[in-house]
Amino acid sequence: MAPLRIYRIDAFTTARGEGNPAGVVADARGLGDAQMQAIAAELGHSETAFVLPAQGDDHDLHVRFFSPTTEVPVCGHATVGAHFALALEGGTRGVRRQLTGAGVQQVETREDADGIAVRIHQNPPAFDEPLSDALVRELADALGLAFDELDPRGPVQFVSTGHGKLMVPIRSRERLRTLRPDMARLAALDERTGTRGYFVFTLDVAPDDDALTHGRMFAPGIGIEEDPVTGNANGPMGAWLVKHGLLPARDGEARFRARQRNGAGRGGFMDVAVTVRDGEPVAVAIEGRAVLGEMIER
């Protein structure tokens, strides 16, 4: 077996040491499930991507994603990292179809004056029923929020574009910054809330901000207390914003920049595009950039 090429890549950023760090094994042929899980645990990133050959004619490559404790169906920042690593290795630019645990996604890699950009076409958005008020109050308490700090313009609701998150809109960016959730209580709510990821976000931004939204994402139930930047949260959030009349479309598309930063101060950004038909969100794409941390062989 050839040496493994293992990359550490900062995704959803243009600055090293920012964004969301992902592990990438550029050619994972020959690795079993236990080996992949062990590598992901050793690297310690929220997700590590393992690139494998295609299994059929409907896709060009197969990518599996592992958190430090479990396999997850798909991951936005690790997808950016995987396709960025393939570009560094001389892979062709353009569109690739990747098979994931959430189905086949189209991923476009392009290069411009600012470097390499990766655009991910996520699955069509799917919306669960909003949570009951009683459960929302319990969730707010676990997050360290008062019930009236939630933004009343939209419900607390699970939204998925492949690997969904619970959307938790709040009024204040300052409260977003100072949140200190009770992680044990949050993880204990996973079964009843129907999610393993809680995306708390706000539209409270300064007039000169380049972003429409700022968010934080907590997933203690899968070993990730807080994720710095999350593609599978900000993409569904875009669909949620359209669904609840908070993001207007022009010529059938709504576009915006989303920023996310964790409590330790690390974060990044992505650009989100939502295709809108008859007032409803029908497709979501996210685009991000990345920076190489290091590559090791072993």
From TrEMBL:
Q: Identify the catalytic residues.
A: 47
Pfam families recorded for this chain? PhzC-PhzF
- Gene Ontology MF annotations: isomerase activity
Q: Which InterPro entries match?
A: Phenazine_PhzF-like
Q: Which family does it belong to?
A: Belongs to the PhzF family.
Q: What is this protein called?
A: PhzF family phenazine biosynthesis isomerase
**Regions annotated as coiled coil:** none
Q: Which UniProt keywords apply?
A: Isomerase
Provide a GO CC annotation, any one.
Answer: cytoplasm
Among its keywords, does the record have Isomerase?
Answer: yes
- Say which species the protein is native to: Lysobacter soli
